[in-house]
Task: inverse folding
């Protein structure tokens, strides 16, 4: 049998019967053996080849795979010319397990043929009752029997002739019907180099099966023996490897099960601890709310008692009685008036949160996630960072940051708070600036705005509906900066090329009729400056008041050069 599955009798190649490979089921509706079907094309195998990962595919299907390494070519068979002494290497991905499978130097044709797959394909052809098999010898009669030695299907006439020939008279010939019932069929493995010769020998030196011609031609000096003699030893070696792999797989499975069981126990312990902490938090916050309620109730009772006493004193007391009780009454009323009371709950319901993505440390080698967060944001402890909250520039973006803190003044590490920012003109209530609030998810919030009109604005920053410390703020938005229209120079004399009529916003002059400034002369600021307004900062706003002149007094200008 050659690499593409052809069989040869007497030197003439005879192809095996082939099913319709466009289907994966027989004509009688029975499913085809999956071991006879290629995973890629879903057809019966044609020239099946084994990849290094031990998955089998049609040779043409492997050729159509895109290489993942090797020469920059398309297709597994293509390759760039190799350098002298080098062999091109091409690697493909197995369509089943995604393993990298390097192809041998001979390409796809150099891969090992899967003879078991060929046997399965042949068995499918025998089991398909709708497929009428032709005689492999005459090609005319309907095959009824099969010679196991020649791997040929024979009609009755050729079968009789096969038995009469001296060379084939001892061959075992069985009925195809018996083969169909047995469900097993085997084809002899023929040499790819010597047609018609079966691989019955094995070269220990080269570790490959051979035919008689191979031994005589190229392996005469090698350690060769019959395949039947060496099979027990090599088969036992393979079985040992299988047992080692199975034992290793079982060890890994035990490790996985042990790790999983311990991890489940760790997660369960963590869950119980979370529930315990949650119950402790509930009890503590309930006590805080009860205490706050009792304190507010007592404060209300104190206020009512003081008011009732004062009203009764004023309504029923004489002048002397009122004046006699004035001191203690006023002191009490003043003390009550100066006391501050918070009507906001000290323990809000939304202060208790479960954060499933938050790391909760480790229990041995097992990382745990999920924490109970009870740190509530106190709006009066929140702080603002950034100068843009007090000063802004018309049509220029401004931004500031809000950092949330808890009652102890410690920054919180999580976002999700209801932050509201409103910016409204102090004189024109219909003029407002839209503010964008971005949650950084770390307890801080980025606020940005772009004022359209100049003026004074009131900025309200609230968390949970309550003003943060210092809110509302006053934001002063200045008019947009005026650009310089002159030249940033060292002096007028240098920038104008010595022209006498050139002037500068600094007001300096030079003797000899020069109307502009010069180094070391009267009025020169002693440093580089703008000719339009005299400002010594290159990135400053123009201070000139004269339209088009750029001078504070509308007198000085730099003549265009």
Result:
């Amino acid at each position: 049998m050659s690499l593409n599955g052809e069989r040869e009798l007497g030197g003439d190649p005879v192809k095996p019967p082939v099913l319709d490979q466009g289907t994966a089921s027989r004509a009688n509706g029975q499913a085809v053996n999956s071991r006879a079907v290629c995973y890629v094309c879903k057809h019966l195998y044609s020239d099946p080849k084994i990849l290094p990962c031990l998955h089998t595919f049609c040779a043409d299907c492997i050729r159509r795979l895109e290489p993942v390494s090797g020469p920059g070519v398309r297709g597994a068979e293509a390759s760039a010319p190799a350098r002298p002494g080098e062999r091109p290497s091409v690697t493909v991905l197995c369509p089943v397990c995604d393993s990298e499978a390097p192809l041998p130097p001979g390409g796809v044709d150099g891969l090992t043929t899967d003879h078991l797959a060929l046997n399965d394909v042949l068995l499918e052809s025998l089991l398909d009752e709708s497929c009428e098999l032709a005689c492999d010898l005459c090609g005319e009669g309907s095959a009824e029997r099969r010679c196991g030695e020649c791997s040929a299907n024979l009609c009755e006439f050729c079968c009789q002739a096969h038995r009469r020939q001296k060379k084939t008279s001892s061959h075992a010939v069985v009925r195809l019907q018996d083969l169909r019932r047995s469900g097993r069929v085997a084809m002899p493995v023929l040499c790819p180099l010597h047609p018609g010769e079966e691989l019955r020998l094995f070269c220990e030196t080269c570790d490959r099966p051979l035919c008689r011609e191979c031994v005589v031609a190229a392996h005469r000096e090698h350690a060769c023996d019959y395949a039947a003699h060496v099979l027990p030893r090599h088969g036992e070696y393979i079985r040992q490897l299988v047992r080692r792999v199975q034992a290793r797989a079982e060890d890994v499975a035990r490790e996985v099960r042990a790790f999983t069981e311990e991890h489940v126990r760790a997660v369960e312990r963590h869950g119980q601890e979370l529930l315990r902490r949650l119950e402790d938090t509930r009890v503590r916050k309930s006590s805080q709310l009860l205490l706050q309620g009792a304190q507010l109730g007592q404060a209300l009772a104190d206020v009512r008692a003081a008011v009732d006493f004062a009203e009764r004193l004023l309504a029923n007391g004489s002048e002397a009685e009122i004046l006699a009780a004035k001191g203690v009454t006023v002191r009490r009323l003043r003390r009550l008036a100066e006391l501050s009371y918070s009507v906001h709950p000290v323990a809000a319901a939304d202060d208790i949160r479960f954060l499933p993505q938050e790391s909760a440390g480790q229990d041995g080698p097992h990382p745990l996630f999920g924490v109970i967060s009870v740190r509530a944001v106190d709006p009066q402890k929140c702080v603002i960072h950034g100068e843009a909250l007090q000063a802004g520039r018309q049509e220029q973006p401004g931004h500031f940051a809000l950092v949330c803190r808890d009652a102890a003044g410690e920054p919180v590490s999580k976002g999700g708070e209801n932050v509201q920012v409103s910016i409204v003109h102090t004189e024109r209530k219909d003029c407002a600036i839209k503010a964008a609030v971005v949650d950084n998810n770390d307890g801080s919030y980025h606020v940005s705005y772009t004022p359209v009109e100049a003026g004074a604005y009131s900025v309200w920053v609230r968390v949970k509906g309550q003003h943060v410390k210092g809110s509302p703020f006053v934001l002063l938005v200045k008019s947009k900066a005026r650009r310089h229209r002159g030249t940033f120079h060292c002096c007028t004399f240098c920038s104008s090329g010595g022209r006498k009529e050139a002037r500068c916003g600094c007001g300096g002059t030079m003797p000899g009729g020069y109307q502009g400034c010069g180094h070391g002369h009267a009025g020169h600021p002693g440093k580089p400056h703008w000719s339009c307004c005299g400002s010594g900062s290159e990135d400053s706003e123009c201070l000139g008041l004269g339209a088009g002149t750029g001078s504070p007094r509308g007198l000085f200008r730099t003549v265009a050069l």
User: Anything to note?
Assistant: The helical segments are 59-63, 115-127, 156-164, 176-182, 212-218, 227-316, 319-338, 492-495. The longest helix spans residues 227-316. Confidence is low (pLDDT under 50) at residues 1-23, 546-561. The first strand starts at residue 7 and ends at 9.
